[in-house]
Automatic annotation (TrEMBL), chain A:
This is Cytochrome c oxidase, subunit II. SUPFAM superfamilies: Cupredoxins, Cytochrome c. It comes from Mesorhizobium alhagi CCNWXJ12-2. GO terms for cellular component: membrane. PANTHER family: CYTOCHROME C OXIDASE SUBUNIT 2 (PTHR22888:SF9), CYTOCHROME C OXIDASE, SUBUNIT II (PTHR22888). It catalyses: 4 Fe(II)-[cytochrome c] + O2 + 8 H(+)(in) = 4 Fe(III)-[cytochrome c] + 2 H2O + 4 H(+)(out). CDD domains: CuRO_CcO_Caa3_II (cd04213). Belongs to the cytochrome c oxidase subunit 2 family.
UniProtKB/TrEMBL annotation, chain B:
Belongs to the heme-copper respiratory oxidase family. GO terms for cellular component: plasma membrane. Its EC number is 7.1.1.9. It comes from Mesorhizobium alhagi CCNWXJ12-2. Residues 19-550 form the Cytochrome oxidase subunit I profile domain. This is cytochrome-c oxidase. It is found in: Cell membrane. Pathway: Energy metabolism; oxidative phosphorylation. It catalyses: 4 Fe(II)-[cytochrome c] + O2 + 8 H(+)(in) = 4 Fe(III)-[cytochrome c] + 2 H2O + 4 H(+)(out). It is a multi-pass membrane protein. The keyword Cell membrane applies. GO terms for biological process: electron transport coupled proton transport; oxidative phosphorylation; respiratory electron transport chain.
């Protein structure tokens, strides 16, 4: 039953290899300002803790197996006060000071007048709205594109339960809480792909709520954003036209928006340029015709409990047409 | 009072004395054992059931590890997996860890204090049975798809009816309800037990470290649990009646839950860890054959840990977007708590080094060393996650999973296994196998580290927690497979332990006497009555320092070698310097605690599945059984004074601040007070979040000041009536109508004050479901009503006792308890009136 859907699932490696392979979601492979600072801090902490651990281990070994003379040196309240109180108090104060400095740098990096992106956590996908400098709002979903070399301000909110926005390569996580807006500033130095994932358990398909962040040179980004703000491509060939007709007849537009058509639903991801994205279903599937088809029919197996009903009414041919149409929305 | 450290009673003791003691303390035979209330019997049941939950939640963990062994696995589906990790966490934290350490307190404290039992045996029995029934029902929900799936932390809004329809989440609240009951009951027992039932001469400075740690444990429960009690009440009320405490659209806030939950949840970690550290502080000196180095430092460290632990709950919320200044404060506090742990770790190392002989490597010492290793790693990763920027990355990842398993398994499970091996001879005819023990230890130790050490890296590589599957291509497969293999090793170690247990553990009568050559009182020769006589203690390790103490205790040369009142009893001593004060008469086996527990469990269960009428009937029966049992309390001074040996004669009845009952009531008032402070915090917190829904702008204007003024008058009048009733109590054998009348009028004042408060708000048109302000106002009324309801039952009970000739000027503990709670309620309600009617006027 699941096999078919997992064929599509298994196609993800291709995508991930394209995306820069296994380190695409690793905090140890930073590609952005905050993540880089935390990465340095991590190594300092790891080394500090290893040294302290070694000290404790050596003291224990001496206490257990050392010569009488050595054991006598450890046997007193001097050790307790020196190693258990004074040393940690001094070392931890220094570490605390360092972490405050890092937080200060992160706080000062916020750009007020740069690009703003509103990201809304939904069960179990991401609504993404680019807010251009002129105030235009361009809606997309499940993928973030950002220009390199400039701070990008993310406004994080939630439409239902608590989610958490986390792209380990770029920054630490920040929760998306109903009724609150949290802001996170991303600054990415080099073009490239990072993977993010919801980090606060949000019920049901929490495990399958991911996304890609694609950093592009500023000029490319502007071009892309201009295209993204256009209405959807008009279907041209036969299959696309048939697919579009099926899309309309089946009432897909009650939930999804495809700008430039009658489809204007707002409770599900905007599909205007879905064909352009790197993945489907919040980074659960690769983006190709086969994945579209299996999603429409088998989505409850691919991503259990997601809020889209499975459509088992279509023939293979119809599925193919729908998939072709959706893929053409570039 | 002259107390000589030397044996005091002539021997041999009169014939028949020992037989009498045995008869009085006999454990019920056959199936009647369920009516037992003695700490050694119910303590063992408590530990056994807690351990059963450990095994069952451990099986869930193995199933989850199997699912995660490889990427894209569908061995366990999403829905079941989400239920499993919720039940695993909830069971381990609430049904295993807290009850297990509490059980060790019930089991070991009276023995360490050479007391015959804890001061309230039936309360323990009630709490334990409620926990057994409620816990088992909660756990079983996993078998029929009724288990909660919101995580053990149950964050709203995910757990509100909108996103978690069905009864699943309610079963979580049910399970927590039982643990709240048993934890509070245990706290009462342990505070009063450690402070009032120590042996003569055991001043606070001579108290075993474990007793210190349990005292701090119990105090922490008093202040931490009320926050989660309030939170769970609010969540259940919002789920059932739609009062919007946590719904942002109506002025509530999801973060309120997190504050309350972690205000409890973080201290809970130390609630679990401190007793375990206390156990280690008992085992290390024995194995090193030398007194603990830094006893006083450790006591200070334990108190400091308890204190600090209430100031760092926000470190579970670093990623919620709170301001940087708060982050820094809570980060500093989180680091500060490392200091007391450092003191303890180095005290143990210094003690090991100080040993007269080399530290004996036994199975308990292996587990202690394993604990030291694992806990140190957990503490250090704790320092790492206390650094805010680092936490931004690893929060809610497998790094944190690794961290807290190092802290909790290292800090609690390993000491627990050390305890099993170390104290088994105290309750079992055989010791556990030292040979198998080595295997158990190495399987568990290696298994644990193989499971959890790689998870640090898995987390840094980006794997979040609470995911039922992951794509193979992210590079997490190998690490996950290693973790799964380690988990099975750990499981094999635990299985081998169970095998050893089945083979050799035979409760009922101790095994070899003091096999580890320990210095503390639990290793005195003992039987169902605990020790034959209660020693006079002059040192921290009496067995080491008081020659021949074991022999003298066994021969009855110390205090209370008999049963002078003809029933169960133990000596109550003063809280600081442990001077004998009176003899507490204690109840024996009986059905009421068991039946009250079963019907209490039935009440909550039936309420959960919305069978309200049957539930209420069960609730009434439960209260009835509680009243039947309390009817036999408060024995009065009829038995006069009795000789406890050494020429010391003690009264058999005490009232006022000397009485153990007064102390228990004070503990309960602290609990109620913390609950109310949590309420005041919640009220003010929601106001800071949503001032726009507050009266008078966002809600109907408050009732005119005449309403709260009338309530205030009635409360003060009621308090005056209770004071008057206390003065009017007639001497024994007399019945005066003035006392019942005054109590009755006081209850009427209370009810009237409550009614006026409700009516006042209702008339303004304020609805509890309209917004968070309305919900908070009516919750305040609800908390008042809860106390008023309890007081009405207590008041009528007091009147009945007076009518039955069981309450008079001398025999007045029942009345004193009523008066204490009444006055507390008046103070709390006056504070409440000032808050509800004053605050909006002040800021509005």
């Amino acid at each position: 039953m699941r096999d078919r859907s997992f064929q599509a699932f298994a196609a993800l490696p291709v995508l991930l290899i394209v995306a820069g392979c296994v380190d695409v979601q690793s905090a140890l492979n930073p590609a952005g300002g905050e993540a880089e600072r935390i990465h340095t801090l991590s190594w300092i902490l790891i080394i500090f803790c290893s040294v302290v651990f070694l000290g404790v281990a050596i003291a224990t070994i001496i206490a257990l197996f050392g010569s009488h003379r050595w054991r006598q040196r450890l046997a007193g309240e001097r050790l307790v006060i020196g190693a258990g109180l004074i040393f940690p108090a001094a070392a931890l104060s220094a570490l605390l000071g360092y972490s405050v400095v890092i937080m200060g740098i992160a706080g000062s990096a916020e750009g007020e007048d740069g690009l703003r992106i509103s990201v809304v956590g939904e069960r179990w996908w991401w609504r993404v709205i680019y807010i251009a400098r002129d105030g235009r709002r361009i809606e997309s979903a499940n993928e973030l594109r950002v220009p390199t070399g400039q701070p990008v301000r993310l406004e994080l909110t939630s439409a239902d339960v608590i989610h958490s926005f986390w792209v380990p390569k770029l920054a630490g996580k920040l929760d998306m809480i109903p009724g609150r807006t949290n802001t996170l500033t991303l600054s990415v130095s080099e073009p490239g792909i990072s993977r993010g994932q919801c980090a606060e358990y949000c019920g049901g398909a929490h495990a399958l709520m991911s996304f890609f962040v694609i950093a592009m040179p500023p000029a490319d980004f502007e071009t892309w954003l201009a295209r993204e703000s256009e209405p959807a491509a008009v279907p041209v060939d036969e299959a696309e036209i048939q697919g579009h007709a099926l899309f309309v007849q089946s009432g897909c537009g009650a939930c999804h928006t495809v700008r430039g058509t009658d489809a204007s639903g707002t409770i599900a991801p905007d599909l205007t340029h879905v064909g352009n994205r790197h993945s489907l279903a919040a980074a659960t599937l690769p983006n190709n015709a086969e994945a579209f088809a299996s999603w429409i029919r088998d989505n409850q197996h691919i991503k259990p409990e997601n809020l889209m009903p499975p459509y088992e009414i279509y023939t293979e041919r119809e599925l193919g047409q729908l998939a072709t149409y959706l893929e053409s929305l570039r | 009072m002259d107390l000589t450290p030397h044996p005091i009673n002539p021997t041999p003791r009169p014939p028949g004395e020992l037989e009498e003691l045995k008869r009085v303390w006999a454990t019920p035979k056959g199936w009647r054992i369920v009516t037992a209330v003695n700490n050694t019997v119910i303590g063992l049941l408590y530990i056994g059931v807690a351990f059963l939950f450990f095994l069952m939640a451990g099986v869930l963990a193995l199933l989850m590890r199997t699912q995660l062994a490889v990427g894209n696995n569908d061995f366990i589906g999403q829905e079941l997996y989400n239920q499993m990790f919720t039940v695993h966490g909830t069971t381990m934290m609430f049904l295993f860890a807290v009850p297990a350490v509490e059980a060790l307190g019930v089991m070991l404290l009276p023995q360490m204090l050479a007391a015959r039992d804890l001061p309230f045996p039936r309360l323990s029995a009630f709490a334990i049975w409620a926990y057994v029934v409620g816990g088992l029902v909660f756990f079983s929900t996993i078998f029929y798809d009724l288990a909660p799936a919101g995580g053990w932390f149950m964050y709203p809004p995910l757990t509100l009816t909108e996103y978690s329809p069905g009864d699943n989440a309610d079963f979580w609240l049910l399970g927590i309800g039982f643990i709240e009951i048993s934890a509070i009951a245990g706290a009462v027992e342990i505070v009063v037990g450690t402070l009032r039932t120590r042996p003569p001469g055991m001043s606070l400075a001579r108290m075993p470290i474990f007793a210190w740690s349990m005292l701090i444990f119990a105090s922490m429960i008093m202040f931490a649990f009320p926050a989660v009690i309030l939170a769970t009440m609010m969540l259940e009320i919002e789920r059932s009646f739609g009062w919007p405490f946590f719904t942002a659209a109506l002025g509530g806030d999801a973060l309120l839950w997190q504050h309350l939950f972690w205000f409890f949840g973080h201290p809970e970690v130390y609630i679990i860890f401190l007793p375990a550290a206390g156990l280690v502080s008992m085992i290390v000196p024995t194995m090193a054959q030398t007194p603990l180095i830094g006893y006083r430092l450790i006591v200070v460290a334990l108190i400091a840990t308890g204190f600090f632990s209430f100031g760092l709950w926000v470190h579970h919320m670093f990623t919620t977007g709170i301001p940087a200044l708060s982050l820094t404060f809570f980060s500093a506090a989180s680091m500060a708590v490392a200091l007391p742990s450092g003191i303890q770790v180095f005290s143990w190392i210094a003690t090991i080094a100080a040993g007269r002989e080399r530290f004996r490597i036994t199975t308990p010492s292996l587990f202690v060393l394993g604990f030291l290793f694992i806990f140190t790693v957990g503490g250090l990763t704790g320092v790492m996650v206390a650094m805010v920027p680092f936490d931004f990355q690893v929060h809610d990842t497998y790094f944190v999973v690794a961290h807290f398993h190092y802290v909790l398994v290292g800090g609690m499970v390993f000491p627990l296994f050390a305890t099993f091996y170390y104290w088994a001879p105290m309750v079992s005819k055989n010791m556990l196998s030292e040979r198998l023990g080595r295997w158990v230890f190495w399987l568990m130790f290696l298994g644990f580290n193989i499971t959890f050490f790689p998870m640090h890296l898995t987390g840094l590589l980006g794997m979040p927690r609470r995911v039922w599957t992951y794509p193979s291509e992210l590079g997490w497969d190998t690490l996950n497979m290693i973790s799964t293999i380690g988990a099975y090793m750990l499981g094999a170690g635990v299985f081998l332990f169970v095998f050893d247990l089945v083979l050799r553990f035979r409760p009922g009568g101790g095994g070899p006497e003091n096999p580890w050559r320990a210095g503390t009182l639990e290793w005195l020769p003992n039987d169902v009555y605990s020790t034959r006589s209660i020693p006079f203690v002059t040192s921290r390790e009496p067995i080491w320092d008081q020659p021949n103490i074991a022999e003298d205790v066994r021969e009855g040369r110390y205090f209370l070698p008999n049963a002078p009142t003809g029933g169960r009893e133990t000596i109550v001593t003063s809280p600081i310097d442990a001077r004998p004060q009176y003899i507490i008469q204690m109840p024996g086996p009986g059905w009421p605690p068991l039946l009250a527990a079963i019907f209490t469990a039935a009440f909550f269960l039936l309420l959960t599945i919305k069978l309200v009428v049957v539930a209420v009937v069960c609730g009434v029966i439960a209260v009835a059984f509680c009243l039947i049992w309390t009817w036999s309390l408060d024995p009065g001074p009829a038995k006069g004074s009795v000789d406890i040996g050494g020429g010391i004669s003690l009264p058999t009845y005490a009232t006022g601040p000397t009485s153990h009952s007064w102390w228990a009531m004070v503990v309960l008032m602290f609990v109620a007070g913390s609950l109310y402070l949590a309420y005041v915090f919640s009220y003010l917190f929601l106001w800071t979040v949503s001032p726009e829904v507050w009266a008078p702008a966002g809600s109907p204007a408050l009732p005119a000041l005449g309403w709260p003024a009338t309530s205030t008058f009635l409360l003060l009048a009621g308090a005056a009536l209770v004071v008057t009733a206390g003065h009017l109590l007639p001497p024994a054998g007399k019945f005066g109508v003035a006392v019942p009348l005054a109590i009755f009028l006081a209850l009427a004042c209370l009810a009237g004050s409550l009614a006026i408060e409700i009516a006042g708000h209702w008339r303004t048109g304020l609805s509890p479901s309209a917004n968070a302000y309305g919900a908070m106002v009516y919750l305040g009324v609800f908390l008042f009503g809860q106390l008023a309801f309890t007081l009405v039952i207590m008041g009528l009970f007091t009147i009945a006792r007076h009518a039955a000739g069981k309450l008079d000027r001398e025999r007045r503990v029942t009345f004193d308890n009523l008066a204490l709670l009444y006055h507390y309620t008046v103070v709390q309600s006056l504070l409440g009136l000032a808050l509800i009617h004053g605050f909006p006027r002040l800021v509005g």
